Amino acid sequence: MRQICFLALLGFPLLAHANDPQVDDFGSTQDGTAVEIYTLKSSTGLTAKIMTRGATLVQLHVPDKDGKSEDVILGWDDVAGYESEDNQYFGCSTGRVCNRIALGKFSLEGKEYSLATNNEPNHLHGGAERSLDKVVWKAKGYSNDKGQGVRFTYVSPDGEEGYPGELKITVTYFVPADANRLTISYKATTDKATPVNLTNHAYFNLSGAGSDTVLDHMLQLNADTYTPTDETLIPTGTIDSVEGTPLDFRKIKKIGARIEKLTNTGALGYDHNFVLNPKPNDDSPFNLAAVLRDPASGRTLRISTDQPGIQFYSGNFLKGQKGKSGKTYAHRSAVCLETQHFPDSVNHENFPSTILKPGEEFKSSTQLSFGIIKPKAE
Ligand code: GAL
């Protein structure tokens, strides 16, 4: 019934499109709010499940080199898992400002703002109580001749988590009928100037969530430079070359090949924002950001985005928590590749601006395209 549009109320018998995504109950939050989960499918083997709590990607099944599908992202089988201390932003929509803000402070239009310092001494991923990953969003599934989607909306009140302005946010997940691709798009408007930086926080293991480490996965990043940080992962403000550092992923490299050189830093491994090289002069809004390959399963992931940066995090804080079907999520057993603006942009004038003003619309989009490693010609 919920899919009968309002035109039906005006007497038009307009029913939902036959191919609209399946929606199921997914239990409820601790405070009793019902949570739903939407299923998007391609005809080529990709299935994505996204729940209304945190507009969170809960499952993502893609075929391997033998056509066998596996869920390649970390998460839980129920809402309680996502509400537990073990959840490190698995699969969620992250914001209002993803990544860190130094000491939880910024000033805007002459006013000082103070946010929760939930990652001492800094602010992380939008705050402690009502960040976008923790609230239950409204959702509406849809379909068209190209595929299936679900649109999540949330209105964050003025002052929520300390941020100025009422922020109206839409996150849309879309799966085309004929490709193993998931597109995640964001839109936001505000009634006061406010910083906005939105991303998805999926943890990938292309051998399947709960498999061994990702140190044998191969990674390529389309970035000549990165933003160095202090020990608390706040950018120093410079933009440095990756040349001669373990961060040089311009040619595809094993994640594990040089990671130990970073173990004794504040990042404990890879946890860096890479500055994406400029987009080629073509008609597409998308720029290739990253290519991830898993030689074991043969699965590949290409990430394209219109965002200026990508945070590559090698799961250094994963601690062996038990996830879906009781599987263990060991140290470095997944990677996050978070397309976004640079961390702490609100405190760095030389970084691309994250300030959204009334009358403007924030827009961003990222494509996750799955494939398999092509067998070498004999
Ligand atoms: C990442 C961040 C890491 C860590 C993680 C959540 O986005 O770069 O430092 O905070 O989220 O555990």
- How much helix, percentage-wise, in residues? under 10%
* Tally of helical segments: 2
What is the general shape? globular
- Count every beta strand, where a strand is a DSSP E run of 2 or more residues: 29
- How many angstroms separate the termini? 56 Å
Sheet/helix structural class: mainly beta
Q: What integer value in Å does the Rg equal? A: 20 Å
Q: Which architecture name does CATH use? A: Distorted Sandwich
CATH topology description: Beta-galactosidase, Chain A, domain 5
Mind explaining what this structure looks like?
The protein has one domain (17-372): Distorted Sandwich (Beta-galactosidase, Chain A, domain 5), CATH 2.70.98. The chain is mainly beta and 378 residues long. The chain has two helices and 29 strands. Strands 11-12-13-14-29-23-22-17-20 form a nine-stranded antiparallel sheet, with no helix packed on it. The chain binds beta-D-galactopyranose. Beta-D-galactopyranose binds next to strand 24 and strand 27.
Top keywords for this entry?
5-stranded antiparallel β-sheet, disordered N terminus, binds beta-D-galactopyranose
